[in-house]
Amino acid sequence: MMNEQADSGGPSSALRSLGRLIGVLRNKRDLLHEMVVRDLKGVHSGHALGPIWIYLHPIVITVTFMLVFGAVLGTRLSVTADIPGDYTSYILVGLVPWFFTAYLLGRGPSVFTSNSNLVKQVVFPIEILPVAAVIVSFIIYAPTFLLFLIYKLTLGGGLPLSALLAPVTVGLHALLALGVTMALAVLTPFLKDIREVVTVYSGISMYFTPAVYLPEWVPAMLRPILYLNPFSYVVWVYQDTFFFGEIAHPFAWIVLAMLAFGAFFGGLFLMERLKPYLGNVI
After folding, report:
1. If you average pLDDT over residues 62-72, what whole number do you get?
2. What is the DSSP string of 221-265?
3. Which of 3, 55, 187, 210 has the fewest CB atoms inside 10 Å of its own CB, making it the most exposed?
4. 43: pLDDT confidence band, cut at 50, 70 and 90?
5. Comparing C-alpha atoms, which of 146, 124, 111, 159 is closest to residue 31?
C-alpha cells in the first residue's frame, strides 16, 4: 500500500514516468518515424498538390499578416516609431510560434480519438501519438520559420547575438507543446467539451497575445489579460531571442520554464493515469 502511494506522485514518480517515456521513444523510434510520415502524407492525401499544401497554408497566412500589419497598418499608423527595429520582423517572430501553438491546440484533442483503432490495441505505445503530433507540427511550420529567418537576415537587420539562445527557446516551447498536447489528447475522450473550449480559446487568444503589438499599446485596464494568457510568455521569449537582442522580458523566461516543465510532467502524469481507461471511452 505504501509503495502504491509513493508511486502516485512526487519527484521520484515523475522521474520514473519520464524514464518510461524516454524508453518508449528510444525502443520504438522506427514506429515514431512511421507515425510522423503517415501523418504528413495523410493530411492532404488525394489533393493535386499533395503534401505541398501542408507547408503552403501556413506560409500564405504568415505572408498575409506581413502585408496587412507590416506593410499596410505599420505605415498608416506609424507604429514603427515605438518598436526598436523592423516592424515586420517583430510581427513574424511573434506570429510563427503562435501559429504553431494554435495548430497543436486544434489538433491535440483528436490525437487519441482519431487513432482509436491504435489506442485500443494493448500492445501499442500510445505515448508515440502526441510526440508524433508535435514533431509533425514542427515540420509543417519549419518553412514558415525559415521565411522569418530569410527576411530577418536580408531585410530585417540581421539576427542578434541572442539568437544563440534559440535551442533553449525552442526547447522550452517544444516541452510546453508536448505537455499540452498530451493533456488535451488524454482528457478529451472523457470530457468532450474540451474540444469546444480549446476552439474558443484559440479563436480569441491571438488577439491577447503581444505578437503584432506592444503591451504598452493595450489600455491599462485590459493589460492584465496579456499576462494571464500563458502563450504571451512564449512570444516574449521568442522576441527576446530573435528580435530585441537581449533578455528584455526576464520574467517571461522564468514563467515559460515553469509552464513548460509543469505542463510536460502534468500531461505525462495524466496520460499514465488515464491511459488504462482510454479503450473504454474512445
Report:
1. 75
2. TTHHHHHH-HHHHHHHHHHIIIIISS-S-HHHHHHHHHHHHHHHH
3. 3
4. low
5. 124
